[in-house]
Write a structure and sequence with these properties.
By secondary structure, the protein is mostly helical. The protein has eleven helices and no strands.
């Protein structure tokens, strides 16, 4: 994989690359699995601990998540370039463009809150669903059907609204860290990149979903200590393929920049 260039014009890749990104992520992970898994455990634990702070915890956790993603992007860039992986690599977001990255987190937070309000306004009642689930077999089929009928339209609308939010934030941390993009630029470019490569992203999402499903079967969720770093490796590989590797079509875009 080559160094990033011409990142403002997302390249279109074949759908089959969705599987290749996962394989590439696993190959990179194998270069230093212990440190990558340990770093994920520590960083994810820190983000979760922030979420436990009363009142502001959820917001702090959301703001910090792009910093963790950026740290793993820097770690995989070091491995990809043959450099020795060190702990400071995982702090690249904190030591570098922390404010732009946290701005992406703020967009995620605000978008999630707004979508949640839309779903509640459409009649989505999470408390009722949890209460019905707690009853187990005691809940009557008619009661469960009524709850599902009320919740389904809101859930479908919520999914439709979450899709562009996820698309816009998917590559944003890497674009900010590697390309120096402003938050608004990174969000827009990420949205365009995912939309242009929807087939490859769909295949990759399916592959990652299978990985996380099997990882969740490991007792005490220890499988996630492997699966999540591999997921970040896959994200790095997809960023490299879409933004940094241009192959035969590099010439038409020469001279472009992300600024």
């Amino acid at each position: 994989m080559t160094t990033a260039s011409n990142q403002d014009i997302p390249r279109k890749v074949a759908a089959s690359q969705g599987f290749q990104w996962l394989a590439a992520g696993f190959r990179l992970y194998r270069k230093n699995p212990l440190l990558l898994s340990a770093a994920f455990g520590v960083l994810f634990g820190t983000v979760m601990a922030l979420g436990l702070i009363p009142v502001v915890g959820g917001s702090l956790s959301e703001l910090a998540s792009p910093l963790m993603v950026a740290g793993f992007m820097a770690a995989y860039r070091a491995l990809d370039e043959g450099r020795e992986l060190e702990l400071p690599n995982f702090l690249a977001g904190v030591q570098g463009p922390a404010i732009p990255l946290m701005t992406v987190g703020a967009v995620q937070l605000l978008g999630t809150l707004l979508i949640g309000q839309v779903m509640l306004g459409m009649g989505f009642d999470p408390a009722a669903m949890m209460a019905a689930a707690a009853k187990g077999g005691e809940a009557s089929p008619a009661e469960m059907q009524a709850i599902l009928n009320q919740a389904m339209p809101a859930v479908l609308v919520g999914l439709a609204l979450f899709a562009p939010l996820i698309m816009a934030t998917w590559f944003a941390p890497a674009l900010i860290l590697f390309g120096g993009a402003r938050p608004a630029t990174a969000l827009g470019v990420s949205l365009r990149a995912v939309a242009r490569n929807w087939a490859a992203m769909l295949v990759n999402s399916f592959a990652l979903g299978l990985l996380l499903f099997f990882a969740a079967l490991v007792p005490m969720l220890l499988g996630l200590l492997v699966a999540m770093p591999v997921l970040f490796g896959s994200l790095y590989a997809s960023y490299q393929a879409i933004f940094a590797v241009w192959a035969d079509d590099a010439a038409p875009y020469a001279g472009d920049s992300l600024a």
